[in-house]
Structure formats: C-alpha cells, structure tokens
Amino acid sequence: MKISEVAELTGLSVSTIRFYEKSGLCPLVQRGADGNRRFSKTDADWLELLASLRATGMSMSEMRRFADLYASGDTTIPIRRTALLAHRQSLKARLVELERCRTILDRKLQKYDEIMKDQI
Q1: How many CB atoms lie under 10 A from the CB of residue 58?
Q2: 35 and 69 in contact (C-beta within 8 Å)?
Q3: Model pTM greater than 0.70?
C-alpha cells in the first residue's frame, strides 16, 4: 500500500506516518524500486495501534519503549501485554474522571436551561 492509502485506512495524516517512521516507532517499512514506501497490512495495523495509543494518552516515550519491545520479537509479548494492560487501566481511570466531569457539566447546563426558561 502507498502511504496515502495507509493514511486513509488508519485515519492518520501522511505527515504523522512519516513522523512515526522517523521517530523509530515503525518497523522498517519496505520501499519499492521507485523509492516510495510500501506498507503491508501488518504495517497498517501497527500504525492503527500507535494512533490508538496516542489518542488515549500514551506518551511518545512510552510508545517508543513499546515499539522497541515489538521490534525485539515475540519473546517480549508478556512485557508488551503488561504495558497494554497498564495503559488500559489508566484509560479506565480517565474514563471515570471524564464521566464525573460530564455529570457536572450536565448539571450546570440543566441549571442554565431552567434559568433561561424562567426568563421567557
């Protein structure tokens, strides 16, 4: 796949994909005879995971560590699994906090609606 196809498939921008590659987050992406990147389905899946990790708040340094473990092969699967479990737990805690904040906002909006209704 061309980089533009991977961008469309993953929802990442071309510049983000290039940044991830230059940052060492992507395994070596193959290049065609024309010198252009040729992404496999596995590459696209990896980029999609990176995008998900980033969107859910994983730091770039944590992502680099995870990518380094991935590049080290299957012997690191238990460590990678533990890292993902920890990230999922922190995401769960963030979701609880976000839900608490949404509840507060909903109460405030309801109060504003009541005040505006009384003014009419």
Answers
A1: 19
A2: no
A3: yes
CATH for the 3-92 domain, from 3.40.50.300, 3.40.1190.10, 1.10.10.410, 1.10.1660.10: 1.10.1660.10
Give the H/E segment covering residue 99: helix 77-119
Q: Which pLDDT band holds residue 58 (cuts at 50, 70, 90)? A: very high
CA distances from 95 to 89, 90, 91 (A): 10, 9, 6
d(CA 64, CA 3): 21
Nearest to 12 by CA among 40, 45, 42: 45
Rounded mean pLDDT, 40-47: 93
Whole-number percent of the chain with pLDDT over 70: 100
